[in-house]
Batch of 4 targets.
Target 1
Amino acid sequence: MVDVVLYGNLTKDIIFNGFEQTTSIGSIGNVWDALVKLNQKLSIHIEPTTIGTALIYVDTDNNTRVSKPNLYLKTNQPKVVEAKWSHILYLNHIKDLEFVKTIQNSIVSADVAGKGKFDLDILTYIDYLFISDEDIIDLDTLLDKVKGCVILHSNSGSTIYKKDGTTIVTNHKTIYGVNVLGAGDYFASAFINFMLQTNDIEVSIKIAHNETISFLKDKI
């Protein structure tokens, strides 16, 4: 059994920050990189569902980024791997989610990226669903469907919404003038890492937000 298995999109990112161009491995690559930096003792397995590319523009002045993805250059039906934690990127960009139903004896988290519909019934298999303030999805509908919690993260704070109506909130001063690319992936990675260590949701969300703020500051 591995500690973490990553399913979903693996992309070659062509990134413009102003007129400066760089190339990187995104999506699963971002989460893998963050997990390795946070905890080198973790055993991680990568199981892509698609391989593609994305053109990304980062607007540092406004803390935003936009992308034009082409995710389906190659597709794959992933092999389900036994793991303590299974994380899926991104539910609304995976055409066949049937494999999620076969994941057993594992905590399952997932996220979405921008717009794109998916079968919301798959959320009954998801313990932790990550969304950002840029993802326009009805929160009440998500809470009605999700097995566990919905975690909303932004550059000003993070909130865990539980099915019983209670919330856990962490607020910090907003950082301006940063490159937010990869921030959501880093936040999810930090949360996963510290949940595996502490199994304390309140501690983990606070540490994950602080770690992500530090990550963004390092990119200034």
Note: The helical segments are 28-38, 139-145, 183-198, 201-218.
Target 2
Amino acid sequence: KEAFKDQENMQKESLSPEAIIQTVCEYFNIEYAEITGKKKSKEFVEPRMIAIYLICDMLGIPLKTIGKLFGGKDHTTIIHARDKMAELMKHDHKTKTIVNDIKAQISEKC
């Protein structure tokens, strides 16, 4: 158990919010600035919410910090995005598959 704990801690250290955002950008073929910007079109909002959900899920960093990564968004916006994605994944198989695919890509990189 100790050996695995050390390995898990090393993975978390090499995993950053920026790495998660970059992986989501690559998956959806969009620019980093577009996902962290203020555009509200669907092609950017869904990837943005997925990135927020994954950062919350995989890193557990403070909501204010996540908000700053996404153009200074308020922590309540981050909560909304995280909770909306969690709820959507319960009912939408396509969304759940996308999130799991991105999670697998992130795990491969780190």
Note: The CA atoms of residues 11 and 100 lie 18 Å apart.
Target 3
Amino acid sequence: SDDDLVPMGWFVLLAVGLFGILGWVVFQTNMGDSESDLIDVKIANQLLGRDLDRPKGAEAEESEREAAEVHFNKMEKVMTEFLSAESLEEMIKWVRHPERVAPLMESYYARNPIEPLVFRATKKYHSISLENKPFIALEVRVEEKEKGIPILIEDRPDGMLVDWESFVCYLPMSPEDLAKSRPTELMGLRVYAQRDNFYTYEFSDESEFDCFRLNFRGSETTLYGFVKKGTTLEREFLKAFPLEGDESQKAAIIKARFLEESKATRSMLIEGLESTRWAFPHNPQEVSGNESDAVDAD
């Protein structure tokens, strides 16, 4: 129904003013579900009532409303153009980090057809901060699909751009081909990961490795990743995947490879944790050093 679509203007203002950080990873993990941690209109309207109780000059209120509406319209124009693109050349105009991402898009669309979509409406919306950069997490409706589509936009001073990599959940090859060909070169993989106990063959020593079950969006393929204990990398994984408490799967970008002539056919050695979400807040090609809070050069 149309009553749960985002109201123009005020929702944008509320989302920016009344909410803090929303973990984009949560939305990604639940992206196939009907429930989402993005704020829907009913909640926004309740908060709007509270906001209107605060004293504010009519002129300032109108100015904020107009600015929010302009911002919202610009966002929906970007959505419309990005989703309706029929070629890589059209699509890349609306994509973050185009120089780095263009080869990835060429590789992806050599394997998958471009699907132009007709944008209908923004269903849910949330302004978020990822490593001190402003983003907008969205759920949008399109003509061709019943379920909402999650999209992440960087809200840049010079215009909004879509995070294409998290939109398609980019992988260098399909999960099925990955499991079949078992490449030994290091690959960046967007996965759902959670702690597991699948110790076997080269990875049978529980005192040497931490085990993680790896799943992929839209695929039944399951692989297992192993992190060497006592390493800096294990400490990074301990922060993201504590031994106690939350046992749910989490989105991550890992660096992993199969071992040569390994008997553990579904097991990979994990050699890096690139991100604890499916998007890079900063362009990895332009960030010097390994500091996660380095400033993006673009």
Note: The chain has nine helices and nine strands.
Target 4
Amino acid sequence: MTDAPLFQARGVSKRFGSFTAVSGVDLTLNLGESVGVIGPNGAGKSTLLAMIVGSLPVSEGAMTLKERDITRMPLPDRVRCGIARAAQIPQTFARLTVRENLRLPAVFGAGLRRKDASVWVDEVLNLCGLDDQAEAVAGQLGLLSRKRLELAKALAARPRLLLLDEIAAGLTQPEIETMVTLVKSLRRDRAILWVEHIPFALRETCDRLVVLDKGEKILDGDFATVWKDDRLQSIYMGVTDHAAA
């Protein structure tokens, strides 16, 4: 890890009229770190990711990436600077092949030229276990493969900060375990921020756990300590250590 944080959010808030979805959140991420974000529905988790990637403007506060102010930076520029998000519902180009889906972010996100883009796409296909489906049409893939492709698309942009928004949602237990193994393999040379409702997935992959509730950051610390905190247990009535195992 470097001395200076890779990413910092200071007092970021998001309001929709009179409703405050995220309120004064501070967040620091270091290179090589994997951080989970958990909280009940409506806690502001996905809104926070949307502000970081630039699909929603910040109402208040500031954000930096590698000490560069990105608070008002448009989404395409943030991708080129090193931020990418994989969404809960795969946002793939259904009529393009898997390889073609990855080539677009490699060229327009990572800024790679033709030959370098091809080499990098092959590497991403291998990393995400999509080698044998490279020429398959994206719209014909099963759910797990589409989830892999959504993650691969984000990775193809060569992000330093990889945002994962409930990418395990809708998967079976074995499929979730497959995604966990994949995410664990991606930590090198980047930071990962993973919003998820499946506790064991975060426990297996994350150093830290951040808890949001009603738009505010309630807890932020190492996973084991935060998971046992009474405040988390009170927010998640019925979620216990046994349920997370």
Note: Strands lie at 7-16, 19-29, 34-38, 60-65, 68-69, 83-86, 161-165, 191-195, 208-213, 216-222.
